[in-house]
Write a structure and sequence with these properties.
Blueprint lengths: L4 H18 L24 E3 L1 H9 L3 H15 L4 E7 L3 E6 L5 H10 L13 E5 L11 H19 L3 E8 L4 H17 L14 H14 L8 H26 L6 E4 H6 L2 H11 L3 E4 L2 E4 L10 E4 L7 H13 L5 E7 L6 H10 L7 E6 L2 E5 L2 E2 L12 H8 L1 H8 L8 E4 H5 L6 H21 L12 H4 L2 H11 L1 H11 L3 H20 L8 H6 L29 H25 L8
Length: about 600
């Protein structure tokens, strides 16, 4: 989408630098990366760049002088693009565009439709994105829900930016946690059959363990009582983890989350891949035996100390399986591995970065996105939860209460590495105070407007059918400039691994749209007779009523509008609706036609 204003400015600056270099005006050995950004204050122009400051050391001139040379050349050579180019201390270039350039934004949205905002910045690089990966030892809780929403949105913005993404769920179905699950279920099973012998100290609490025990009694009656304890625990663990994994799949499906790959930790053990990884590390002298245990020499790659990978008794630590798992992922040929982890895994990052480097890959091959905890609020009060006591709010309960759309949007309203307060009452409100409703309503409001317009015989015009002057009024131009920023937001969200930027943008666009729509008519008022026959429309008040009013009910508006104005506003608002729909879709949130 190089026709967008920001891209055009970057191309003009790059082309002009080449010309100035070839003519000897600027002695350039190479061009710096040209970054075009929105200025902090709108009166400074439409875009700005620090390129003159980046060139100062290379050119051996003051940034202001370089900026003045560039500004003069850009205005001479690109009059159709720039109405003015200013230089601000200590060397910023501020660009004010020819208003006609903004029409191209509307044309691009119209042309690309659902693809508007996509780019090729990723150049097809292959990414394996692992997220959720909750142990099948209990239901998904709200923290898993935040990770799931983040992972899905991240995959979507990466794909929209030209990366090739596969989603993976790592099933931790081996090790001590499965042993504890089996012991916990067996203890409840025996308890319910009147043969209780106590509960494991570190066992899993919660009603779901009792429910699994009930299910075992229905299918196996008392048969497990006759088995040796270890065999009974193993069977309980296998059946319980299968039931819980099935529940996890169901909850994720309902949440609209899918994975191309479900990878079992058991595969690593049964296939011998852990031992294979160890053998390779020994060959590299990165696995050393000390006091009967095997230590991974992670400190050689920046970790604060070496780590035990295999204990003296021959059993593997969690680290051993993780090392083998990451080697297995690297062997599949991905350019980048992205892991979405809970914030409590922060200290684990250097170990995995060390493992990646130990197998001959750059540290940057692995990227980890940390997700902070979620606090649920109800009635302004925090909902107390204790995972250890088995008292936690499940993702299923949240979906039952607020629905998938609100849950996803709320989970994505803050940076992943910041704590999130999730207000359940707010998430259910149908008002402007509810962010997801606010954005979805903007889309539905426009859909309703277009239905009314068509019912009244109005043609929904294309951009080229509209008189340009009516597209470039002050407020209309403000909307267009906001739309022009959308591709940059998508690309920035992908590159920085921060899809929350998209929720911020959509709220800003929705606010601008609602304010514009509440100030200006789009369709001329109906006659009294026509008004009495009109029943469908959208709200015209600044707050959203439970039952949307008709487009024709806006009696407070005295604005007189011509058919040219109506056409221009319909054309612009159609593109606003497209961008809102595209953004919601990337977040995994629906864009309703009616609310």
């Amino acid at each position: 989408m190089s026709g967008l204003p920001q891209s055009q400015v970057a191309e003009a600056v790059s082309f002009t630098l080449n010309r100035l270099s070839q003519s000897g005006v600027l002695a350039l050995s190479s061009q710096p990366g040209i970054v075009i950004e929105s200025p902090k204050r709108p009166e400074w122009g439409d875009f700005s760049s620090n390129v003159a400051m980046l060139l100062a050391s290379q050119v051996r001139q003051a940034p202001m002088k370089i900026g003045e040379v560039l500004a003069g050349e850009l205005q001479r050579e690109w009059p159709h693009l720039f109405s003015r180019v200013d230089v601000a201390s200590p060397g910023f270039l501020n660009f004010t565009l020819n208003p006609l350039c903004w029409i191209q934004v509307l044309q691009s949205i119209q042309e690309f439709g659902l693809l508007f905002g996509t780019s090729r910045v990723g150049k097809g690089q292959r990414i394996l994105l692992e997220f959720v990966s909750a142990n099948p030892t209990g239901p998904l809780h709200v923290g898993h829900g935040r990770g799931a929403a983040l992972g899905q949105a991240l995959a979507n913005v990466l794909q929209a930016s030209g990366f090739s993404v596969e989603r993976e769920y790592y099933i931790n179905d081996a090790g001590r946690q499965l042993l504890l699950l089996g012991q916990s279920v067996l203890a409840r099973y025996r308890e319910k059959l009147g043969k209780g012998t106590g509960f494991p100290e570190d066992g899993y609490h919660g009603d779901y363990i009792k429910e699994i025990a009930d299910a075992l009694i229905r299918t196996r009656q008392s048969a497990l009582l006759d088995l040796p304890a270890e065999e009974a625990e193993r069977m309980c663990a296998m059946e319980a983890s299968a039931l819980l994994l099935d529940r996890i799949r169901q909850d994720l499906s309902r949440f609209g989350i899918g994975f191309e790959i479900w990878f079992s930790e058991t595969q690593l053990h049964e296939s011998g891949k852990i031992q294979q990884a160890f053998d390779l590390l020994r060959q590299k002298h990165l696995l050393e035996q000390r006091d009967g245990a095997w230590w991974f020499c992670s400190s050689r790659f920046g970790d604060e100390k070496d780590r035990v990978a295999q204990k003296q008794d021959g059993s593997y630590t969690y680290l051993a399986a993780d090392i083998a798992y990451h080697r297995e992922k690297l062997g599949r040929g991905y350019d980048t591995l992205i892991n979405v982890w809970g914030a409590d895994h922060h200290g684990y990052i250097p170990r995995m970065e060390a493992a990646v480097q130990a197998f001959g890959f750059p540290k940057e091959t692995l990227k980890v996105v940390l997700v902070q905890m979620v606090s649920l609020l109800r009635g302004g009060q925090k909902v107390e939860m204790s995972k250890r006591a088995g008292e936690f709010v499940t993702l299923r309960e949240v979906l039952d209460e607020v629905g998938p759309d609100a849950a996803k949007f709320f989970f994505l309203m803050r940076r992943a590495d910041t704590h999130l307060d999730f207000d359940l009452d707010l998430a259910k409100q149908q008002s402007a105070d509810n962010p997801v409703y606010y954005v979805q309503y903007a889309h539905a409001r426009l859909a309703s407007l277009f239905r009314v317009a068509q019912d009244r015989g109005y043609h929904l015009p294309r951009i080229e059918e509209v008189k340009t002057d009516f597209l470039l009024q002050e407020e209309e131009l403000g909307l267009i400039k906001r739309l022009a920023h959308y591709p940059t937001v998508v690309e920035g969200s992908a590159v920085a691994l921060e899809p929350h930027r998209l929720t911020f943008y959509l709220q800003e666009l929705a606010a601008q749209l609602h304010a514009y729509y509440n100030r200006h008519r789009v369709l001329p008022p109906l006659s009294v007779t026509e008004r009495s026959e009109s029943t469908e429309g959208v709200s015209e008040s600044s707050e959203f009523p439970e039952e949307p009013e008709s487009e024709e009910s806006r009696e407070h508006s005295s604005e007189k509008i011509s058919s040219d104005v109506t056409s221009a506003r319909l054309a612009i608002l159609r593109q606003v609706q497209t961008v809102i729909r595209n953004g919601l879709t990337l977040l995994g949130v629906s864009a309703p036609e009616k609310m």
